[in-house]
Fold each of these.
Amino acid sequence: MPRQPTLQQLEEAKAELDRLMERDGEDTSGNLDKYHGRISAAREEVARITAQLKKLGILPYTERERISAELDEAFPNAAKGVEVVWNGKRFSKRMKPRSKSRSGRTVYTWDTWWDCLGDAVEVDPEQTAAAAELERALNEKFPNARSRDTVEHDGKKYVKRYAPEQMSNSGKTVRKWRTWWEPV
């Protein structure tokens, strides 16, 4: 069974990463990838030790990490860009590459988190009905409108927006798009 990591091991891993970054910055060989593998491994080691220390309760989770963990548990199949309402606030799932291949084309690991978009708004049924009617009218009048197309209806301008609503299991293909019209 592997030993539990310590704060000293985390400091040593951070020092090694700093040393490699400094050597990479001072390198004049012209080989841009000379320390790439070692720096990537050192970054992963720091991330691994930090995650284990947080899991063991030695290091505290940040508020963002705590909320993201709770939202991931509540919405395990949420795709990138999906907005949800949780505890009276709106959140959107975000992703960015944590590690990539040297070419940058292949992503090995992803960082995911949830951004708070603000308080959830109480919806007035009359406003909802009016918005649905406007949406229907705009879709009928402009059936071929594309994303970011600006149109004029009843003297007001609107722009069509698209966002992924449902993604494939791989996360690479959009299965279903959500569309809406925003006033300009």
Note: Residues 125-183 form one domain.
Amino acid sequence: MAQFLDELGIPTPWDLTEFCRRWDRQRGRTTRLIPTPALDEKISGLTLSSGNTDYIWYVQTTGLHRDHIVMHEIGHHVLGHSPRYQADPALLARLLGSTLTHVSPKTTKLMLCARTVFDSIDETEAELFATVVLAQTKAVPPPAPNDALHHLRATWGQG
């Protein structure tokens, strides 16, 4: 993973769109990020690969949370995880509506990631990937002055 990040270069300041552009250029594919109000009560991210395009749906949420969901999905690709499901036209229709009517189920790989339950090594690895990448971006804001950790550090020092 470190080699991947070194070769790609993390944008400074952090910018998810720029990261995806660099990743696309490196691998010769296109990434389309698609916000959605909701996928399922347990699913916050979904990846579908078809042809030369990877579609990543993510639940509409705050910037940092959104970036984490997308980086989790990208982590599955970077780490070489196999899709969990073969595309089923009925499943695609139910989850995605009519947005991908041009996509053939025969050439599609669908990866559903229930990020609320980390019951597989793949999910744990993808979550770790997202956490490590975003930690390196320094996109995580410093604690607010009234934050409990800030108070403890102010009282006891950095330790």
Note: The CA atoms of residues 15 and 112 lie 25 Å apart.
Amino acid sequence: MIKAFFSRPGSKKEIQESLSKDIKDADERILIAMGYFSDKEMKKILQNSNATDKRIIHNYNDTAKLKIKNFESTILGKEWDRKSNLKENICKGSSMHHKFIVIDDIVWMGSYNFTSAAQECNWESMIRIESKELSMQFRSEFEYMWLFSNLNVSLNGNSCKFCGDIVQNPSNHYRIEFKVEINEQEEVTGYFFLVSCNVFNNGKEGGEFPNWCNLCNNETEESIFVVEKGPKSIGYTVFCNNCFRIKLLSYKEQLLKYKNGK
């Protein structure tokens, strides 16, 4: 089911009212990628949600970046370098310019930011789509942005800081490895990310790397390479972003249990 909603100058809150109902009814997830977020009224609505997975990706250039109780948050983007003289590269920085929300299997997308200007002053639109297939696509992109924001991989605009090349697609340009340290009792004692540039390492973008998730058995462009290193053996597994998040939660629980047992 697809339905369009509009916001116009005035006091009527057509988008917020309909969106609020979905937020209230959310059970599994609320995933927000919002360019600008300063609407304190929307903040209160979100804080009352009972969804299990609640996360938001803020735009680096958003000065407000409202903190929402019971929501995990991260920041994606890079400050604009207005003094840059790289004439061949029009991207002097980057913004996380999305405006989409995934609520269970519902996707909201359009021009509407979570700001009072969007709510009361601007001419805005949002489309509400109920589709499990589409929500999975947006969830996959959200997971990649979430992971990328936490890896501290600096893109100089749209250029790679490792090789200096213009990046066609970060998911193909970078190789992401997750190293897990395991002791003789097969307990997780630590882990860390390792990010490398495929161009720098292999002389060409891409490379011959597995692109099949070992958990869900689906083909994926955004592969995470998990390496479990212990005294007995080294295990190597490939996960898609969605499955990796599930696996990461398991590692976090195991590491916490190990630290508490010390």
Note: The longest helix spans residues 241-261.
Amino acid sequence: MTRPDLKRLAQDGQDRRERAIVARELLAAAQAEDERTAPLRAYAEGTWDESQHQQRLFAWAAEVETRLPVMRLLVHIPNGGMRQQQVTRSGQRFSREGQKLKFEGLRPGYPDLVLDVASGTFHGLRIELKTLSGALSPEQRGWLMALRERGYCADRAQGWRDARHLILHYLSGDVPPQRWIPRRGQTYVVPPLPHSLEAHRKRAR
């Protein structure tokens, strides 16, 4: 290993240690804030949809970016959401935009949030963000399981505050407590790749 390689490794180790210290400080502050405001926000945030939780999470990420620069790598994957629909002659509903995105590689159930920053023994973080009462779909469970088996920290978060805790716990270098625990004996499968658009058109004829 060359000297530049050793220098980069040493710098990376230093960066991770400093990042972990900041993440732990922010996590402690977030936990204290959540405990203090719990009675006031329980009803309001309980009525939020996923979009509102996503927006609040990214507003917080922007607030702490100066102290935790890796937050700029946090990305939302818009797999869900309402898309304009049309109705066929047989009465079936479909979305041209959704169909196009599917054939371009959009996969149902892939986690909402991506943070491609290695921490501890994990390659990166994946979060499926739900509302406070939201549940995982079979496709989402399949993706979380597959990502865990391949070295990622992948989990569900109930609301933006839970996602905030999960992110900070992850960046502190510790193994975050699992929110979603697979059932014993249950099989979790990633949805298959879609057929090509041309093959889809042939089958529809």
Note: The first helix runs from residue 3 to 46.
